[in-house]
Amino acid sequence: MAEKVQQQYNASSISILEGLEAVRKRPGMYIGSVSTKGLNHLIYEIADNSVDEHLAGYCDTISVTLNNDGSATITDNGRGIPVGIHPKAGIPAVEVVFTILHAGGKFGDGGYKISGGLHGVGASVVNALSDWLEVRIKTGGIIYEQRYERGKVCYPLRECGTCRKNDTGTSVTFLPDATIFEKTEFRAENIKSRLHETAYLNPGLTIIFEDKRTGMEDKETFHEEEGITAYVKALDEDKEPVCDVIYYKGSKDGVEVECAFQFVDEFQESILGFCNNIYTQEGGTHITGFKTKFTTVINQYARELGILKDKDANFTGSDVRNGMTGIIAVKHPEPRFEGQTNLHNTEAEHNHTNSSYQTENEVGQVIDYGNRVIRRKSGHGCSHNKAQRHYCRAVKAEALSDLARHRQLFGFLTLILLKKFHR
Question: How much is the mean pLDDT over the chain?
Fold first, then answer.
């Protein structure tokens, strides 16, 4: 048995952390760590709120600036955080957002249908972990501002200028608290990578990054009209593709599924999943649904084309996905994430069903088209056997070793997805 603690344990031993004190006491619970990764996460929390404005249809430009004094500024041209008095709290809504945990417009009856920030703690956590934070809001032709220091309000929300009535948006500048973080120097390359990723996932959004720190000056604009199709191409930039990027998008029961994938001349698979623009690092049912249905569809058509005989075993999931680079992105009104850092998406039924449904529909159509191309290029009215022989010559199938089996499947996927003979 452990040595007994000598202090008394009674009612007075129970602590109550008021306001944002809990965040400052246990920051890792809210941002994952107090390392550089957690430091950069502060920017992502504010920027993701701006992205949610884009998803709601009110923002098309976001700027992220690293200032020379160590602070960061995130600005958008969305609607602007509401400045009216909150009916329950009795203070301006913007003050509620930055000083009260689990407060925001993303709990079902707010101003967002799709959102990555669902816990209502992002802005208030950034405020709690900052030495100071200033917010400026443009709305109704007036500019409002408020300042906080370590989560505490410095002065009431006040007017600080005027603007055009149709000029709206929010600007947040904060300086991370050096007593909380191991280091307070933002890592620009990681931030740029995350912002570029966000641009790929939102084709209509422009994100401007600027580093104003002495000796690190940099400016870059991210805008990707091709969306996740361009993302897949970028991931395969230094690899040899064996097919064009296949892209499809669809929605069912209010859940939108978007997918892009390509095969390269390698034997590893790389499939990234996103839910409401958040990278689901540990997977999720949207990825599981895609993988399962893709394997099923490929096996179904392999048998119809005569590539797999009755006596042959089905291709495994790893067989059909060897060399695949893919992006699976879902937009869900009520996703379930594990933890504030959103590493895993557990919304099982809807994501699995919708990802499977769209994959079966769209991949099936591509394969049907490829099948018709095979028939046309190998002779009108030809049998499956003739098409298969033409296919085998094209891919130079070798012996029935494991490697050859992979190559055969590779050629099969190349044929039906790339439309190889259609060039």
Answer: 79
